Amino acid sequence: MGTTGPRNFRSPETFAAPPLSPAGHPQDDSRGTEPDRRVHTLGARAGRSRLTIAAWLVGLTVTSALLWSPAVVFGFRNPSAHLVLDSVDACVAVLVASLVFGRFLRHGRLQDLLLFQGLVLLAAAGLGLTYLTEVLGGIRAGTLDIWLPLAIRVAGALLILAAALAHARPAKRMLRRRLLALAPVALVAAVYLALWTGRDRLPVAFDPGSAPVSAQNVLLTGHPVLLLAQGAAAVSFFIASVAFASQSAKRDDELLRWLGPACALGAFARLNYVLFPSLYTDWLYTGDLLRTGCYLLLLVGAAREIRTYWRAQVTAAVLDDRRRLARELHDGVIQELAYIRAESHAIPVDVASGIRIVNACDRALDEARAAVQALGRTSDEPLSFTVHRAARELSARYGIDLRVDLDEAITVDSEQQHALMRITREAVSNAVHHGKARGVHIRLSEAGGRRRLAIADDGVGFDVPVGTDTTGYGMVSMQARARALPGTFNVEARPAGGSVVTVRW
User: Fold this and answer.
1) Which residues form the Histidine kinase/HSP90-like ATPase domain (predicted)?
2) What is the mean pLDDT of residues 348-365?
3) Among residues 10, 61, 213, 409, which is most buried (max CB within 10 A)?
4) Where does residue 244 rank: exposed (0-12), middle (13-18), buried (19+ CB within 10 A)?
């Protein structure tokens, strides 16, 4: 189990806080919880890899069907649909590229820079380079109109491969980040000028006159360089898919999680283009559908990345506001209460109201400090850390010996954690103020599927009927918080034997 040995917290004269880990949590011998964390991590990694595995299976199934099911027609002639898919894919690439460039500006990672440049090149190749060459005129069909988009697509695939292999390394500081957005444009211009200069000497990459009349059979045709270039792009995407999938298993990154399966479909799309060059015809083929599937996965990843980003922004804003409120309480209300308490000591000791005022100030200070700590606490703090911190504070504040015995495997949500801490603080305060306790034992355990929090003290105790029938707000508040868990609240006390406050849920 995850139970740790008891911890003793003493008064300020002898108090020694337990050592803290680098993350700020108490260093407990909670090795029993380590296998649980390891299993959770392995499960999360496996879940992130399933998407990439599924994409590989889809691509393999489609490609295998092409090769071994010649009786099935896998495409149809539709120039309009072909143009629509090209435009949609290019627009998605532009959208994702803008998102990735924003990531690069925020984090300065080389991976984001290379990925941005690769997506821009893929978008440029699909946004009308072929049609641009047709508009210019004077170009032999099947030459510049194919070689130019092909060169840009291969360059984009290589940049995405480089991004996958770059991991999370930072880009060089000497690079001017915003000017790098022009690098893909410069590359497109350079390739265009080079091919335009030698356009008369360019071989025919694919003869439009050899376009098939049916999509029933695999068609391996085109210039060898064309086929090799498509194969090189496919290999680049295959390697990038594996690399991105491996990284997504180690990093909590929504976009990275979807890059692996997207690259897998992109790789099989290029492989299908080798088998049937529908990219340069009016045919809508499986390669086009796989390519669109690649961009749809990128779009899903971008949407989830945007959602994660804004959720983090909202969380950061809420935490900043909570910290501001905590500072206001600490510098305002708590200081005023401390001043009132200090001034109350000037009241003669034989005046009963003086004692009541001091006790009321103590309770108000406890409530205000608890509110400050609740506002400054993050929601992911484990229950054990919160209990240990509260024990140190209570021990130092009241000058008592406080023993803590916890089962580290017990977890609760943030609302339950807040309620349990308020019950613990109120119970310890009652033990000190009403029971005159010098020692308190806090125990958190689980048995039979039910969890139990017990706060026992060595004070003089009190009569249970009197303690539970009074209208004191502290007792009523503890009962209400326990029932809201939902759970039960019980007090066992004797006039000369101390008291035990127990919460079960």
Assistant:
1) 417-504
2) 75
3) 10
4) buried
